[in-house]
Amino acid sequence: MGINLELPKKFDSTVDRTHLAAEHIFRPISRKYDKAEHDYPVELDELGKLAKQSRAKEKETDGGADQTTDAGTVNGPNMRALISAREMSWGDVGLLLSIPGQGLGNAAIAAVATPEQLERFSGVWAAMAITEPGFGSDSAAVSTTATRDGEDYLINGEKIFVTSGSRADHVVVWATVDRSAGRAAIKSFVVPMDTEGVSVVRLEQKLGIKASDTAVVRFENVRVPADNLLGSPEVDTQKAFAGVMQTFDNTRPVVAAMAVGLGRAALEELRRMLTEAGHPIDYDKPAAAQHAAVSEFIRLESDWEASWLLTLRAAWMADNSQPNSTEASMSKAKAGRMVTDVTNKAVEIGASAGFSEAGLLEKWARDAKILDIFEGTQQIQQLIIARRVLGKSSTDLK
């Protein structure tokens, strides 16, 4: 049976709109905010308003009958988010992460919130707070606590590497409601940043994505209403913390798409440099019969293509309500490894031009590394994939 790998035409406007933003808004200010870490990109304010209006229109479209094809498949919000991330990351990953109203916490809300919560939090800009000083990729090791106190919860703990932590107006905090219950007791809470007891301790100095702020956020007896707990408050040991982990099943393909967008930018620049040097890419000749740099380019491009196809698959499964934990991790692992390889090889082949700040290749190489780290490192993704393929639990395979 043939497979149609072309994007549905209803996404054409999304591709055009987001690519124009990447080309005409992101690229011109990319170096400016790379050199001015922690400065807020004011140029994004208007884009944030337009993006909010666009999401409202897309919500109507994706909620209608036109999202279902004759074959009964759905191409909806996950696919749209994938395309937007790919196109905008072609412009600048850090600036994409800085657009007002589009925090990683919003993905968490979309993944596990009740219909009432989706409506109530529809207009917020939410960061996501998971990682703590005592652990990195092991999300089950959360030690931040949420203690029931009447109609509220009291949250205590400290979170690190919170993207948009100093800019967002809300933050989704992962906390345990019962340490003795283990993973099953880990829940996520929507907390307004102006709540008493919430404080931004510091901003991190980073290798890349400098346009995006990354904060340490402390919670000291932070009181939030019980209905700010996303999803069900019940501690279900059978489901462990599957509810909050569903967030990763939605966001990992988006991160993979970011890697695909950045990888494409590097490949386009490398192709231009090779062509100008008199080494055009010829797909009609064997790679081994061409210049070594051209042969390497063809290898990198094929790796890029494989990453994009895996990413499409993961998003399509999410839109069609199919379990995609394995595919989400596969796309993230493949694309994260691909983008670091592509950008570093582009710098290497570009030599002095690739290493110079006169262009953006060296910046892209620095930005790329985080895409192989956050939302779960390369090693964590491989561990998740191995567990799924072998049918092992987290206890069996560590």
Automatic annotation (TrEMBL):
<dbReference type="GO" id="GO:0033539">
    <property type="term" value="P:fatty acid beta-oxidation using acyl-CoA dehydrogenase"/>
</dbReference>
<dbReference type="InterPro" id="IPR037069">
    <property type="entry name" value="AcylCoA_DH/ox_N_sf"/>
</dbReference>
<keyword id="KW-0285">Flavoprotein</keyword>
<dbReference type="GO" id="GO:0003995">
    <property type="term" value="F:acyl-CoA dehydrogenase activity"/>
</dbReference>
<feature type="region of interest" description="Disordered">
    <location>
        <begin position="53"/>
        <end position="77"/>
    </location>
</feature>
<dbReference type="InterPro" id="IPR046373">
    <property type="entry name" value="Acyl-CoA_Oxase/DH_mid-dom_sf"/>
</dbReference>
<dbReference type="InterPro" id="IPR006091">
    <property type="entry name" value="Acyl-CoA_Oxase/DH_mid-dom"/>
</dbReference>
<dbReference type="Pfam" id="PF00441">
    <property type="entry name" value="Acyl-CoA_dh_1"/>
</dbReference>
<keyword id="KW-0560">Oxidoreductase</keyword>
<dbReference type="InterPro" id="IPR036250">
    <property type="entry name" value="AcylCo_DH-like_C"/>
</dbReference>
<dbReference type="InterPro" id="IPR009100">
    <property type="entry name" value="AcylCoA_DH/oxidase_NM_dom_sf"/>
</dbReference>
<dbReference type="GO" id="GO:0005737">
    <property type="term" value="C:cytoplasm"/>
</dbReference>
<feature type="domain" description="Acyl-CoA oxidase/dehydrogenase middle">
    <location>
        <begin position="127"/>
        <end position="222"/>
    </location>
</feature>
<dbReference type="GO" id="GO:0050660">
    <property type="term" value="F:flavin adenine dinucleotide binding"/>
</dbReference>
<feature type="compositionally biased region" description="Polar residues">
    <location>
        <begin position="66"/>
        <end position="76"/>
    </location>
</feature>
<dbReference type="InterPro" id="IPR009075">
    <property type="entry name" value="AcylCo_DH/oxidase_C"/>
</dbReference>
<protein>
    <submittedName>
        <fullName>Putative acyl-CoA dehydrogenase</fullName>
    </submittedName>
</protein>
<comment type="similarity">
    <text>Belongs to the acyl-CoA dehydrogenase family.</text>
</comment>
<dbReference type="Pfam" id="PF02770">
    <property type="entry name" value="Acyl-CoA_dh_M"/>
</dbReference>
<feature type="domain" description="Acyl-CoA dehydrogenase/oxidase C-terminal">
    <location>
        <begin position="244"/>
        <end position="390"/>
    </location>
</feature>
<keyword id="KW-0274">FAD</keyword>
<feature type="compositionally biased region" description="Basic and acidic residues">
    <location>
        <begin position="53"/>
        <end position="62"/>
    </location>
</feature>
<dbReference type="InterPro" id="IPR050741">
    <property type="entry name" value="Acyl-CoA_dehydrogenase"/>
</dbReference>
